[in-house]
Fold each of these.
Amino acid sequence: MRLGVCYYPEHWSSDMWSDDAARMKALGIERVRIGEFAWSRIEPEPGVYQWAWLDQAIDVLGSAGLKVVMCTPTATPPKWLIDQHPDILAVGADGRPRAFGSRRHYDFSSPSYFEASRRICEAVARRYGSHPAVAFWQTDNEYGCHHTVVSYSPAAAKRFRGWLAKRYGTIDALNNAWGTVFWSMEYRSFDEIDPPVATVTEAHPSHRLDYRRFASDELVRFNRMQTDILREHSPGRPVAHNFMQLFTEFDHYKVAADLDIAAWDSYPLGALEEQWFAPDIKARYLRTGHPDFASFNHDVYRGMSKQPFWVMEQQPGPVNWAQWNPAPLPGMVRLWSWEAFAHGAGCVSYFRWRQAPFAQEQMHAGLNTPDNRLDLGGEEAARVAEEIRAVVSADGEPKVRAKVALVYDYEAKWLFEIHPQAADFHYPRFAFEYYSALRSLGLDVDVIPADASFDGYSMIVVPPLPVVPDDFGARLGASGAQVVFGPRTGSKTRDLRIPANLPPGALADVLPLRVWRVDSMRPNVTVPVTSDSAALKGESRHWRDLLEVPANMDVLARFDDGHPAFVRHGALHYCASLFDDALTQRIFARVAAAAHLDAAPLADTIRVSQRGALKYVFNYGDTAYTIDNVRADAFVIGSSSVEPQGVAVYRAA
Amino acid sequence: MRLGVCYYPEHWSSDMWSDDAARMKALGIERVRIGEFAWSRIEPEPGVYQWAWLDQAIDVLGSAGLKVVMCTPTATPPKWLIDQHPDILAVGADGRPRAFGSRRHYDFSSPSYFEASRRICEAVARRYGSHPAVAFWQTDNEYGCHHTVVSYSPAAAKRFRGWLAKRYGTIDALNNAWGTVFWSMEYRSFDEIDPPVATVTEAHPSHRLDYRRFASDELVRFNRMQTDILREHSPGRPVAHNFMQLFTEFDHYKVAADLDIAAWDSYPLGALEEQWFAPDIKARYLRTGHPDFASFNHDVYRGMSKQPFWVMEQQPGPVNWAQWNPAPLPGMVRLWSWEAFAHGAGCVSYFRWRQAPFAQEQMHAGLNTPDNRLDLGGEEAARVAEEIRAVVSADGEPKVRAKVALVYDYEAKWLFEIHPQAADFHYPRFAFEYYSALRSLGLDVDVIPADASFDGYSMIVVPPLPVVPDDFGARLGASGAQVVFGPRTGSKTRDLRIPANLPPGALADVLPLRVWRVDSMRPNVTVPVTSDSAALKGESRHWRDLLEVPANMDVLARFDDGHPAFVRHGALHYCASLFDDALTQRIFARVAAAAHLDAAPLADTIRVSQRGALKYVFNYGDTAYTIDNVRADAFVIGSSSVEPQGVAVYRAA
Amino acid sequence: MRLGVCYYPEHWSSDMWSDDAARMKALGIERVRIGEFAWSRIEPEPGVYQWAWLDQAIDVLGSAGLKVVMCTPTATPPKWLIDQHPDILAVGADGRPRAFGSRRHYDFSSPSYFEASRRICEAVARRYGSHPAVAFWQTDNEYGCHHTVVSYSPAAAKRFRGWLAKRYGTIDALNNAWGTVFWSMEYRSFDEIDPPVATVTEAHPSHRLDYRRFASDELVRFNRMQTDILREHSPGRPVAHNFMQLFTEFDHYKVAADLDIAAWDSYPLGALEEQWFAPDIKARYLRTGHPDFASFNHDVYRGMSKQPFWVMEQQPGPVNWAQWNPAPLPGMVRLWSWEAFAHGAGCVSYFRWRQAPFAQEQMHAGLNTPDNRLDLGGEEAARVAEEIRAVVSADGEPKVRAKVALVYDYEAKWLFEIHPQAADFHYPRFAFEYYSALRSLGLDVDVIPADASFDGYSMIVVPPLPVVPDDFGARLGASGAQVVFGPRTGSKTRDLRIPANLPPGALADVLPLRVWRVDSMRPNVTVPVTSDSAALKGESRHWRDLLEVPANMDVLARFDDGHPAFVRHGALHYCASLFDDALTQRIFARVAAAAHLDAAPLADTIRVSQRGALKYVFNYGDTAYTIDNVRADAFVIGSSSVEPQGVAVYRAA
């Protein structure tokens, strides 16, 4: 459990660096990330490198006892490079190149940029690969930010054709897989295939899904080029990338497979404002963020990180990039920091040391104000640094082990976006709502991919997962866990077709359903769910699978027109719809009970986590919360009365 | 009264064809539409035709006793043709060609495509023009779908100039007609005129209206090329096109004039979701469709069809293309089928035989599920097939004859779209609301163009018709019918100018009004309507014509600021506004009474129709409806108690 | 106090001109504006001028005793000119040239157009510069209409680089000022800088603000070219331009500095519909306009006009260009006219003499209907003409002198648009709301720029003004006035950076605050404001500055979390938020009382103004209003009972 900070020596006079480093250290900060946007200072003219300032900055930080997280600067190629190679610019769906003047103005498929990136990465890696202060690396910055994964450039089109040829072998195989006979879309060769854009009406969904897979793979290849260089020139230093939950246009699992540390950038207030939440929820959690949003992402990235995951950028105050940017309540920067550690973080690094008084992000708070006074977030970070010692001395830094797993998938998002059948069928939202229901029962959750091992889990929840691995049902059946599936699970083949046996496709081997019809519902429509059990009554929203079920399957709840709504087959449960939050919670509580898990509803602003022997309690609400039945001397942080925005940590009985 | 189905032999293994044909026949299906998207299979390489599979498919269908509706495949030119002639692609208002990869990716003005279409039509027509199983033809598919009528290509610009030269003769005539002196928009020659697009603010409305007329005429010309070829090579076989109400960017009357059968594609649930209806209406009729929507279109296409109109595609279950795609209630497929016949349909053809498991429309239901089991829609179709025999034996297949006519116009829609003066002045909506008011009174309605004969009608309703034919007033006056005009009737000349005598322009000869001012009202504003007659009180919405009326005109209702709201001059009635639904219904009831028609309000989910000696009753609601005063032995289908989603047919007294 | 009218002789047969002129004169009209869209008639072919018709038109008007306002016709270059020089067309943010076919289709930076404009202006100015009937000039027409200030053309890009070079001298100075080191956006030369458009995410805000300044300066230069020509060829005739409040993409002060008369075009109903007002406000003032909207603009343009300002175009009835276009209530055309005079107008000129029956604006009312009968607006104009005599004879035409000033700025609008930090931070709205609060207290207001003299004002209100002149605080302090600042005042430097001492930057010298954090709030969030004074309780909306205040500063109200909401330091008051309307009114009443001004809340539909010795009362409501304590013989117009839409003018005691 360490604290870090993001720092931009190039933004400040070198006169300030020593003082900055000393104050960081005094505050309890141990890691400093630098350099991710510094290309124009490292190489101000083509081929002319200026290392002196950066050498000095790293030396100053290292001398202060800080460890540097060095970045490759490829997120912001300088203007001279763009002017040399205009093909670096990605092309939007509107057919226009995306211009220089902000960031991420590059195309993952551009050969010029691939080479230029290789060159600058090698230069930086060679220079600092064995510098004693450089202890970690970060590749690029926030892949996918500003919708920069998919490009419609000629370079992308060309590489897509090669990708298709590799995937399908022959054009006949592609035509068969996609079903291009529909609407005379048949191709005679891979060379005839264009990116699926600017069509009269929707382009072919299999074509679109493959284009999204291709774009994701291009990013993976780009990142791997960088990790290979870094490992060659800086052996032994962990390599990280800072993901963001919001940027799901590529497969985070595949990128993480090439990293040592999956880090993410946590902006609870900006995320609340920009995501799917309803206006009343946005107002309610305006200054705290949603109680489950950061947690969800901690669990996502913990799952894919080889070493303990990091929060590479932690919101320290108001930000600048959401439509509205409220100030967090006092205490929230501390709460968010502890929440990350409770979920297993190895490091929480604040963005940024000092607010910059210029450019696009001048309204983004730092730990210090632009006039270099310690801001509220800085004070809270200092408190966290102190508290870390108490916690680590009480229990060390054990791994988080959850009994519940939630299966989370990136292709599912692309697929439902491309082929929704219901305009508001938003995969991350539904996955998050399942996660939130589990958390509202006090359960710790691992978030895992569909091809993960299921060993050790008592309960596995599968939000709508259209494409399931072939052995998914068999492995789930063998796991011994209680399993809950959301609707539309198994509804598509890998080629984005309807399975020959209808949904749930391959799952039907273990869960002998047949979804003979689907029913998509606009937002102002719900269907009542009825049951003999009062706990299973509620409302159905968004979607219904109409099920044909065998006589030996338990129909636990039905829609009011008689179709099965919630069924059980041994340990496997299937939700034929997305239910209201309360019904989802009761269903999960029922399944958790079957799994012999201790699950009970929490107040909706209280969340709990367990890491090792310690239990963490977080209060997102506006009234104090009392923890019952814990002895006063068990508390490592706080006490049994948890103030609003407060944190308590105690030894679990 | 026949049933048909849309079938895609190219989507399935030829092994399945015989069984499919046999099962169609057994179900009661008699016509099978094929081939409209099969170009890439008919001509997989340039100039290389592969007839064998299609020969076989047609033979299989014919051998089973089915009659084939053969289509020209021009809605989906294959990729190789686009690559040969990129100018085939239409150009959007954004200046970009609309790419290959879905359908309707062609420009009606492209000379390359006109020639390529002629070639493939001739090839198909020669091959099957005299095949014994081929009994009908369909040209292309759903002209206008996906906003594909208007193109801004160089080819269209060039042909537009020729169209203008033909219409106006001299550039001075055009300048005078349009009034280009306004804003210095004068042209010195036709060559100076571009398509009206990408202008700084709105382009000249007369220019825009002529461009829309031109685009519609281009489509008419394209279709006529096809009907000429089909009539040459397949004499005696009726030629149809499958229109869709939603696609009103061209003049359906002009296309229908070149056809034998005006068919349309009826998707009551998709249409409800995608059209102007308010969210509460969309929720209320979620699984039935609006009670008047399909009927309105039956009456539209009956009016323009030389032979009995067809429903070429009938929704058989949930579809895929609306924002939300609910499942119809059980019984609705049957109800919709009977409603079509009640309105005079010659054939109801379901789309499609079997749901395809691939490509864009894989979520579109068929009569059979993708795993080839008979779906609910298939069961209901079988029931309809049986019931047809009873109905035909009771009364044959008489023509529908209505006493009430509603005047419906396509240019009116374009004109109000181009030049609305009130952002939500939506012509099809207002025409539909007038139609719906008539239907809610139990009246059968013919939908006719403004230049139709008015003989035999007792009552004629004219929704807002901006441009009236010169002799419109005289013919209406001579008809002897009671007439109701909506506001803005006669408000424009053919060149989209204000008439010299102000609105209602030429109509003032018979209806001596002067609309001296207009008043457009935002959606949250209404104006009360007052009258000595309680039945004529209500609310005015959207729009007001402020009328100067002669002393001898009856002012039957006034707005609360004293301006006339509803006036009568002999048999001619003028509504100076769009009234609330209930007031519109009461006004129409009053006029119907003056026309000696039997009109009485129905429950809002009950609709009735008469065809020949039989009366049809449809229940769109959720409670049973009782038909009074009909003897039990008069019923041909059903009984005096009509269940929800039920149909009854009885001999009218 | 004169009446005028806009007239288009080229739209009508020359047979009608004499009658038109005679009827204008008889109605009481004295000025006639002509020619602003007549280029295609003046120069129908390149270099071929046709003066005869225009000579005749001017002669007819002059002979009738009317004075002509002659316009330069540069708002509508003809098609032949565009075809000769396609680079005249401005380029949109989408990269496409904006096509011919409406108006304002030109780029202020196009060298071709600058020269063509110079040529036509000289031709017109030479021809009519000394014509006895031509008494005034208007340059172009409604600069900025349809978002035509900013262009992204190559010509604009080239001139922008020159503009930057002039502003910054060296590229290093620019890099430092903007802070381009952020995100590696550093430039090596001015030639590398492109317009800030089409970037992946937001372009650099300083870059964007400079581009807006540049675009405004280009317009100023274009207008100055015209005023120079007019003054050379028509010395002694005042030169005007007709601004519109809605078009704030350029600095109206800078253009006005080159004019003699700042005129504006007043469309109270269209503006209400198209601006920020909430739907219920739009419905409430549907047929009157907002009681403060026209007044605000009268005061804006009075402040920048060397001679008495004009209303060059006054709405005479319904217009055509808003989404909905309601008819004004009878009496409103008169009320609006008198309101303009009450605020100091020298002339109110109606748009237009007669409604045109063709082209884009055919639904725009005139003083006469298209069939040439006097319309309601014409009748009201005649009444105003008569009343003017009584008013002028009672008091002459004195200047308006206000004790209250409101500081209004154009760059502020651009800056907050570019860099809002809160999506709905709409500068003109907030400035208007401050103005409205002052007016609701019966106060007359001067609207002035930030660099104006503050002499003679008792109270100065500063809506959120991000960039303050260096001497702003000192001058305000020296003025002796009571001052109220809105939030975010002084929050940015001229280069769009955060001031080194944090906001309020330079103002802190006189107002020693420190805004250490800001808090932006979504529309469904408010924060209570508490105070010991009941009058200072209310709600905070949109935004909060969190203030650090010295001990000697009065904190008059606080937010409910304790932060200061409203503070006073001597005569300087600072609002840390935007308050609800009622609280703003009470704050301004309190400050007005401190300034010894007579301020009391009016009914919300009553407004009063003083010009010289006369007091004007306007009733926007729907019930009569009684003026107390004024003797009957003091009334010059009306009486103490002011009917709805009524006007009263009386000698102030």
Note: The CA atoms of residues 418 and 448 of chain C lie 23 Å apart.
Amino acid sequence: MPAFAPVGTQANVKTLEPRDLHEASVELILANTYHLYLRPGHELIERFGGLHAFMGWDRPILTDSGGYQVFSLAAQRKLDDDGVTFRSHIDGSVHRFTPERVMEVEQALGPDIAMVLDECPPPLDRAYNEDALARTHRWAERCKAAHTRGDQALFGIVQGGVFPDLRLQSVDFLTQLDFPGYAIGGLAVGETKEQMYATLDITCPAMPAQKPRYLMGVGAPEDIVEAVYRGVDFFDCVLPTRIARNGQLFTLDGRLNLRNAQYAEDHRPVQEDCSCYTCRTFSRAYLRHLYKAGEISALRLGTIHNIYFMQELMRQIRGAIAAGQLEMFRSTFLERFRITDQAKRHEQRELRAANRRP
Amino acid sequence: MPAFAPVGTQANVKTLEPRDLHEASVELILANTYHLYLRPGHELIERFGGLHAFMGWDRPILTDSGGYQVFSLAAQRKLDDDGVTFRSHIDGSVHRFTPERVMEVEQALGPDIAMVLDECPPPLDRAYNEDALARTHRWAERCKAAHTRGDQALFGIVQGGVFPDLRLQSVDFLTQLDFPGYAIGGLAVGETKEQMYATLDITCPAMPAQKPRYLMGVGAPEDIVEAVYRGVDFFDCVLPTRIARNGQLFTLDGRLNLRNAQYAEDHRPVQEDCSCYTCRTFSRAYLRHLYKAGEISALRLGTIHNIYFMQELMRQIRGAIAAGQLEMFRSTFLERFRITDQAKRHEQRELRAANRRP
């Protein structure tokens, strides 16, 4: 079951086409409600038959609720208990999201999985999390009541920062609303990896056993392995696509930065035995040349590899689970996959940038 | 025989991969000696087995000689009768191209067709053309003498601006050197389309009948049709790829600018019945959304279409020639293909920009 959803913010996984995603065996992608509501508009997409038809993607789509982006991207925002009023980062126009409005937008967009409107406070701020959690829970109730589309699953989102009691309270409240699946929100936005894992240690066991568990915004390979080990089923994250555009490519030994001079005459593919088009066709030296020369193709070829790498990782995780060897896989993978401090800092920087820039 | 070569300046047709070019039935691409000499260096490419191996392209490659780019792109240049000294536009380093040095570079790069070093003066400047022509002819002799690679065809370049006597003098001189093929240089860089066609009317009939004729830097569909009609065999140009990145896509009715609001809800493909991936998969509305949203994928999907369109045009031209109906094809095509003044201005601007910017 464990799966990774590449992010197609604006109804497009950056630099890739549906056929590329098929080639990588991608089964699920995420699109962003906030962006698509603003441009080209959910009503236009609905008139085209929904997101699948509009973007030419015939497999499952998940949309977030836009709540997170309103707080991280919108030019201005004003929150009240009923909803949030904000200015578009594109043209400054004023808009309002309430739970009911977001359900209208997501039902028009037509993904297979929609998310409730929630608030995503800084994970270490206790008072903010207490205050936001009550509102997030009322919004979840209102989303559930407003959601009518039978062919679309509406997921609840567990919040509560890094605070065990708040997380458990959130699981308890949302479980009673009986959603078909649950997300864990508010992580990978400022806490340490250890705090993230500890929060999963508390949260996952309390969640309904038979329903899918989705960890939002997490996508570093080591975090995915750790989270699956703790009971998470699926993930989305901009990390693999975003760092690819900076020349950072995944290998089983960790990340390599193709812009480095050491790859200038490297005849090897990015990862030996990788079956992606990039590794089947090009040397590290050629890819480095494309990055250094500012060729758009570099961004795409890097993205093809990183997405393929993630899907291959998920396939291996599923295989390990099926064979009852997840624990062994975890230790083998993590022993080899080198996470440098530089890579960690880069990851934090990239995720922060992704939150600021659309 | 008529063929169009997309331009892969830095050993990459911008936004495309070899498999995309295969899908469009591209048989020949051009790469730029000046760029590849500076970055990553012809010696590195030679150590990788030449351009074909380096860039993963197994069909014919043509390299220009770099002369044109030295004059249009280099940060500084100083010409003498023996060669030209210039500063790199990348890092300001000083380099020198002589006929012998350029042959060394092109033989290391290893294309199927190499071009002699030439000078490409403004086509309307008589005195400049007279002066440059003598030098270009001496350089052609020296290139021919220095070229030793048996598996590579070295083409001569006919110069002479828009001046019939200079063009005929150039054809005469170069024909005596007995190159395996001949290019017509110095057009599409400032003269009117009528002046270009008139120059072809004079030049083509004087060229050797059994050897390929290559019109350099020409790629507007209407110019290609007119030039084939006048006896040209093949072409290279950045136009189809470059305008695609601005949202200008070819249709049989002329160009359309996908950024225009009129396409916001247009369900049709760019060109009805076009078999390219872009037209098979996406609506104009979706493509417009990608352009407006600043998605890199837009640049690529537009390029896929424009290159496919050019190859389809060449296929139809070859079919018309085989059927003895080129004249009818020409009038039918040109009657339908609308060339607006705006498109003409845009084309001039784009080609000028391509000459300035690497």
Note: Chain A touches chain B through 37 residues (CB under 8 Å).
